[in-house]
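User: Can you predict the 3D structure for this chain?
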Amino acid sequence: MAKFSPYKELNKLIEAEAFEPMFAWGLRMAIAACVPLIWGIYTGNFEAAMFITLTAECICWVELKGTFGQRIRTLFGGAFLSVVFALLGTLTGYSIWLSVGAMLIVAFISSLFKNLGDRGSGLAICVYLLFIFCNAYPVNTIKELEARTLQVLIGAGYTIFISLLISAFMPAKQPYRRSIAIIWKHIADLIETVGKATNDKAQRSNLRELYLKEQEVRTSINTSFSFHEQMAHQVNADDKAEYNLALLRKTSALIATHIVTISEEIENMNMRTLDNSVRMQLGAIFNGFKQTADRMAIYIATLKPEEKLLLVSRISRLNKLLLLMKEYTLSEKDNNTIPLQRTIHLSDRTLKLIESCMTRLEALDNDLPVFRSYSLIRTLFTLHPKHWIQNLKLLFNFNTFTTRYAARAALAATIAMFIYKWFDIYKGYWLPFSVIIVLQPYFGATFRKSLERIIGTVAGGLVGGILLRVHTGIYLNEILLCLTFILMIYYLRRNYAIAVFVVTLNLVLLFNLEAELDTTILVNRTLSTIGGCGLAVLAGFAFLPHWDKKWLPVHLANAINCNYKYFITTFFSTGIDRNWTKHKRSAESNNSNVFDSFNRFMSEPAVKKKHYANYYQLITHNVRITRELNNIQLELDNRSSGKLASASEEEQALINECLDWFNKNIERLKVIDERIEVKAITLDETFRTYFSLTEAQKLYLTKLLIELKQMHYDLEKFIKASEQ
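Assistant: Here is the predicted structure, written as C-alpha cells:
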C-alpha cells in the first residue's frame, strides 16, 4: 500500500510553483477581489463592492508573464479595456437592438485577442465579461453612470496597484529564467521517454510518444520566444545578463536536439543482443541525464546555492558514467558497435553543452529585484506608444483563420444575446457568456469544452445551493469565497471541468452573500449554460466552420516546403549560417502544426476518414527529414571553428540527388493544392557545397534520401487515391 508523504507532496507543489506560479496568481486574485467585498459588507455598499470585485477579477484573469515592462502594458491594457467595455455595456443595456449590435462588435473583438497568445485570453475576459454583466445591470441616471464608472476605475486602479506591488519585488530576470527552466523540465521528460528503450522491463516508446514529448519542448521554446523575442545575435553586447540568457536558451534547444538524435541511434540498437552490463550502463546514463535536467530546471528557476551544489554533483556523476562507458569495447562485427559509439559521442557532446549552460548561469550577475533594476525613466518608457501600436497590429492581424473564427463567435454570441433579451430570460446573460467562453477555433475543442463546462456548472450550482441553504458559522461562506479565487486559478490548466465547478461556486457565493438564495437563478444559469454550449457547438459546425479535412493538405505542404528551405539553406548557401537554429525552429513548428491538424482531422465528425494512413506516413517522413537536417547541422556546428573544405564530387552527387528528389516532391504538392506557391531551385552542376561531409553526415544524408524517396512514393499513392 502506497504511503502518503505530506513533505514530498508539499515539496512537489513548491517546485511546481517555481515553474508556473499558479498559487501566487490565485492569491493575487483573492486579495484583489476579497478586500472590496469585505469593505462592501462592513459599509453596506455591497452593490458597489460587487462591481469593484468583478472588475478586479476580470483584470486578474490576465496572467502576468514576461518582463516587468510587458506586465505594466498588460495591466494598463486590461484596465483600459475594462473601463471602455463596462461603460459600453452599461449604456446599451436598456435597448435590445443596441445590446445585440454591441454584442456583435464585442464578440468579434474579443475573439481577435487569440492573436496575442497567452495574454489574449485574459484580456478577452476583460472585454466580454464586463460588457455582458454591466449590460445586464444598466443605470437610470447620469449620477448612477458616474458611480458605475468610478467603481470600475477603482477596481482597475486597485488591481494595478496590487499587481505592480507584487511584481516590484520579483527578480528582474526571473520571468526569462523561468521560461528556460520550463524548457529544461520538458527536456527531462523527453530524456525519460527516450531512456525507456534501455529498460528490458519497460515497453520502448513509439514514434508518436517520442514526438509528443519533443513537441512539448518545442512549445516551451516558442512560448519563451513569444515573451523574450531577442536571439543571442540580436542582444546588445552591453546587456550581459540578457545575452547569457539568450545563449542559455539556444544551448537548451540544442541539447533537446541532441537527445532526439541519441534516440535515433538507440533505435538502431538491438537491446536483446546487447551485453546486459552495457545496457545497464546506458540506462544509468539516461537516468543521470534526466536527474541533471531536473536539477538544472530548478536551479535556473531559483538560482539557490544548494540547488547549484546538487546540480554540480549530478554533472560530476554523469562524467564518471561516460568515462566508464568509453572504456567498454565491442567487436567490430557487432551491429551495435557503431550506434553505441555514436550514442557515447553524442552523450559526451550533450554533457559539454550542459557544462556550458552552467558557465552561462555563473556569468549572470545578481538578479536584483525589479524596484532596483527599473529606474523611473525606464518604467515610463515601457508605456511608449510604439509598444501599443505593435500590439494593435498584432491584434488586428486579419487572416482567413482568425477572421472566420471571430465572425463565427460574433454571430453565435449575437444570436444568444438576442434570445436572452427578446424573451427577457431572468439572469439569461449566462447564455451569450457561455457561447463566447466555450466556442473554440476548432470543432473538437468546442465540443469537449462544452461538455466539461456543463458538468462543472451543474455540479458547482448544486454545491453552492447546498452551502447557502445549510446554516453555517459566521463568515464561513466569505472564507469559502476567498478560497475559490485561488482554486479556480490552480485548476485552470489542470482540469477545466473542476475549474468551471469552482468558478460557478464562486459566482453563486458572490451574488448571494447579502441575499437569500434564489433557486431560480441556479436553474436559469444551468439551462442558459446548456443552451449556450449547445449554440456554441452548433456554431462550430454550421457557421463558417474550420474543418481540418480542408486545411490539413495546406499544413502538410507548408511543412514540406519549410523542410525544403531548410535543406537549401544548409547545402546551397555560400557560407556558414550561424543562426541556423531559426530554420530548425521554423521547420519543427510547421511539423507541429500539421501534426496537430492531423489529430483534429481524426476527431472531426465524418462517416469515413479518407487517406488518414497516407497523411500519417507523409507526416512521419517529414518529421524524420527535419531530424536528419538537424543532425547534419549539429555535426557542422561542432566543426565550424576551422576552415572547411568544399564537398567532393561524390559528396556533391549525393547532395544533388537529394535536391532532385526534393524538387520532385515539391512539384507533386501543387497537384494536392493549387493554391500552394513553392519555387524549386534548378540544379547547378558546377556548384559545390562549402563544406565536406563527415562519415556521420553521409549517413544522415543517405537516410534523408531514403525518406525523400519514400515520401515521393506515398505522395504518388495519395494523389492516385484522391483522384478515384
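The domain at 174-367 is CATH 1.20.120 (Four Helix Bundle (Hemerythrin (Met), subunit A)). The mean pLDDT is 82.
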